[in-house]
Amino acid sequence: MASQLSFTGFAWKNLWRRRLRTLLTLGGITMGIAAFVALVGFSRAFEHEWMRMYESSGIDIAVVQTNFLNSTLDQSLGAKISSVPEVAQAVPMIFNLMDLTPDVNALAYGWLANSYELDSLTLLSGHRFRDGQPEVLLGDLLASNLNKKTGDILSIQGKDFTVVGVFRGGTALEDGAVILPLDQMQIIASMQGKVTAFHVQVRPAPSGEAQDRYIKKVSTKIEAVMPGIRAVPAAERAANNQIVSLAHSVAWGTSSIALLIGIIGIANTMAMSVFERTREIGILRALGWKGRHVILLILTEAAGLGVAGGFLGIIVGWGALRLLSTLPQTASVVSASLSPYHLLESFLIAIASGLAAGAWPAWRDAHLSPVEALRYE
Amino acid sequence: MSSPMLETRKLAKIYDDGRVEALRGVDVTIEAGEYVAITGPSGSGKSTLLHLLGGLDTPTRGEVLFQGSELGATIDLDQYRSRHVGFIFQAFHLLPTLCAVENVQVAMLALNQRANHRAERAASLLEEMGLKERMRHYPNELSAGERQRVAIARALANEPSILLADEPTGNLDSVNSAHIMSILQGIRERRGMTLVIVTHENEIANSAPRHIRIRDGRVEA
Predict the structure, then answer these.
(1) How many structural domains is chain A composed of?
(2) Which domain holds residue A288?
């Protein structure tokens, strides 16, 4: 039986003809997609972890300063928030990112010893800290990265703290965190009398009223009694959190540049490949191939590069994300989970990149007169 | 009375913004099943005439009619080339990444034929050309004569009614030239095809019952 030539088989043979160039191009688009998968995946996982943390700790509303990345509010505002009748509790908190050692970064929270947020954590050893004491709780991931256990001393900002307990939270953000008494955090962060936010729990919604609608209504009421602050429902806070927004912007910006480089690589390969084959395209046109057949052939080649680059990019990106999730510097904020939506999105971006890069060479050759193409040297 | 297979009316082709007048009002008629040789000195316009007859190019003025219908107006040029015309070139023009049997199939890819039908037809045509054992060989593994036979098989792939050959023996030695010409004549007789050959070789021209002599873009009387 003679070998059968299919359209895709023909496209593959054309790509394989210049193997080194094809492989280098593939490397370019792979790195672009890998950067997209890893960076955007990271920022989305980060947002997801925030969402989970809010959900698990029972926060309904976060009250923050309106415009600044590092929100700072007077602790005394807590009484005003609590004066809103629908507010059950409003607990002050400080949130920051800290270098605990040159190699280990951690999210640091300052909470009151009686904060309801502590209720969502499971103590694996030790007990809760006390207000006014140099005591800390460590997430189990952080404890393991620092090689600390209950009873050990941890130095933060030159001050010694006793590790009074190790806990497991519901998210990597908590497992990789250190939690201090609020007053101790205010001292080491030079924020006496100040907090980052108030985390509010609202009273149960009146019967017949949906919970999210009710939370929004309470948020509006809080904002009304305290002009200049924002009361954000927890679900929105996870997505609109300034740190998450910054992570999204950096991720999209960086991966867009990487993708652009990948697209330019494919465009260069397709343009060179098509120019080199101008006479061959003329032969195909002489054999009766329509312009759209030529376009289809070139776009099949370009999309093939996109598909292969997408596939490899997803594997490399996922590997990078997994690696980040195990490094002590990043483990507290990265989870290696990738959503099917993100994978599909990455794959479609890879194919679209290939098609966009192949569009111009395809259009050019489809519009060449056959006799002109056959004369091409 | 039926229309001729091919007919040109006051056909003119001008290149390079008017600097080169390749054809200057050519009127020719070629009947179905005819074997015609187009001859003339280099640069006379004979290849240009063949390209226009085959729908590879469009005239500056005048028209080409296929069975009475004007090419490019009532007949789509791509469709005309894929279904009604087979081309054979002096330089063979095989695709280097494809083996012989794939080179023949590539002509059929533009038409919606089943893959196994394409492969069987390509194999059968190559067998007819005496290349049964060379089907999986790539162009650079074939001799010049073998390459031209693959090109002939490719030209026949879509069962055209017209075979247009531009100096088909120009790159061949005398033995291979004679072989290729006997193949082309055999095909024409067996299939009743119209065969138009551009040549500057007298021996080949003399084998055709009819000559069209071109000089300075005009048909010589």
Answers:
(1) 2
(2) 7-49+245-375
**Interface check B127 vs A, CB under 8 A:** no
d(CA B57, nearest CA chain A) in Å? 6
Are residues A356 and A275 both part of a single domain?
A: yes
Query: What are A77-86's pLDDT values in tens digits?
Result: 999 999 999 9
pLDDT mean over A3-27: 88
Whether B84 and chain A come into contact, CB under 8 Å, resolves to no
pLDDT digits (tens, 9 = 90+) for B74-83: 999 999 999 9
Instruction: Express each pLDDT in B79-99 by its tens digit.
Output: 999 999 999 999 999 999 999
Are A225 and A89 within 8 A, CB to CB?
A: no
Tell me the CATH architecture of domain B32-44+76-219.
3-Layer(aba) Sandwich (3.40)
Q: Is A2 on the interface with B (CB under 8 A)?
A: yes
Contacts of B129 (CB under 8 A, 6+ apart): B149, B150, B152, B153, B183
Residues in chain A closer than 8 A to B96 (CB atoms) = 17
Q: Are A180 and A110 in contact (CB under 8 A)?
A: yes
A319-359 pLDDT tens trace: 988 888 777 666 666 666 778 888 888 889 888 888 888 88
ipTM over 0.90: yes
Out of A4, A283, A374, name the one closest to residue B116 (CB): A4
Domain match, A76 and A196 both: yes
A222 and A124 within one domain:
yes
pLDDT > 70: what percent of chain B? 99
pLDDT for position B196: 96
Q: Is residue A239 part of a domain?
A: no
Residues of A in contact with B106 (CB under 8 A): 5, 10, 284, 287
User: How far, in Å, CA of B91 to CA of B147, rounded?
Assistant: 9
Report pLDDT for A241.
67
pLDDT > 90 fraction of chain A, expressed in percent and rounded:
34
The nearest CA of chain B is from the CA of A6 a distance in Å of: 7
- Give tens-digit pLDDT for A145-190: 899 999 999 999 889 999 999 999 877 788 889 999 999 999 998 8
A220 plus A323 within the same structural domain: no
Q: Long-range contacts of range A324-331, CB-CB < 8 Å, 24 or more positions apart?
A: A324/A38, A324/A42, A325/A172, A328/A103, A328/A104, A328/A145, A329/A103, A329/A104, A329/A105, A330/A105, A331/A141, A331/A145, A331/A172, A331/A176
Nearest to A370 among B56, B83, B135 (CB): B56
What mean pLDDT, rounded, does chain B reach?
A: 92
Quick one: A222 and A253 in the same domain?
Answer: no
Average pLDDT for chain A: 86
Of A377 and B9, the structure prediction assigns the larger pLDDT to B9
User: What is the Cα–Cα distance from A174 to A138, expressed in whole angstroms?
Assistant: 9
Chain A CB within 8 Å of residue B58 CB: yes
Residue where a domain terminates, one of A175, A200, A227: A227
Residues in chain B with CB shorter than 8 Å from the CB of A283 are 93, 95
The pLDDT value given to residue B25: 92
Same-domain check for residues A215 and A271: no
Which residue of B50, B81, B118 to mutate against A (max A Cβ within 10 Å)? B81
